[in-house]
Give the backbone structure.
Amino acid sequence: MGQASGRNDRLGAERRGAFALDAAAQRGKAVAKAAWWTAAGGLAKFITRPTEGKAAPRFASDAPPVSRGRLRRAYMSAFEKDAADVAAGLYPPMEDAPSHPAASILKAWDFLADARAVDERRRRGDGVEVRDDPKSQGYPAYYRQNFHYQTGGWFTADSARRYDAQVEALFSGAAGAMRRRALSLLARHWRGRDQRDLRAVDVACGSGAFLHDLARAFPRAGLAGLDLSPAYLTEARTRSGRGMMQANAERLPLADDSLDAVTCVYLFHELPPRVRPIVAAEIARVLKPGGVLAFADSVQPSDEPQLARMLEAFPAYFHEPFYGSYAETDLEALFGAAGLRVAGRDKAFLTKALLLEK
């Protein structure tokens, strides 16, 4: 009995040691990534100077200026929580730091080259340029927009390829760590379960960054991505190696009570108010009883009053026509009306995550 206990203690210590090394690796990657994308984002701002000029967006807020100390603490929390989850064995180190110098330089160069076009669109206030593109015909009107003033909207391969660089530059390399707050909640919920029995779909998977993380964390689970954009689905398939479905989240092509989990990252702030309850109800419909939604999106001013001014500025400088209504939405009530109750919550920097159970 004593020998067995000793062996268990040694095994536990070995596992903790292995995870500690993984956490150190994750911290190292985070430092490299943050430095790289902070520099790229800073250079883009220097080139475009979006707050200057006659055509710069007008922004006024009654909220107090953001404390740099509070902003830095919120920013660092994303990386600290990410490394802590790796140390706890919830998921492996994620390979999202710049690892191939030539490819990283090309990606950053492409982002910077496009930054001028994005800024020109911002200064014109042209958030619906993409509606002139034949590829956008037949899609919902609210979807046919240049969200973030990005070139091509959701409809081109260049947009899909460039999207992650834009997001990482915007958030100084913290985008992946922020998204993984939803992964953290799901991993804790699924801990100890046989992955081979689990089925999940990443709704609005975009270019596949979060689906890639899911596949790394749950390599034996049945995972798929779903999005409305063929271009983004192609990028997501390449990145994650998982199956894809092209569909509108308002009408999921899935059977009732068929999934153990749905994940949904950064979708709801880009939906009109009338559409959010429809999508919430569809997600609830396809979940099994006891199934969960791992949800992540922007923090709201009520979550971070000290960052309210920054949150209010976001839709002024990045075309986000539905963000204002999202900021005031009671998410617990929204999902509660669909039959989902909050079973867990987390946040880091500018992202909040909820685990909602059917």
The mean pLDDT is 90. The two ends are 43 Å apart (CA to CA). The chain is about 50% helix and 15% strand.
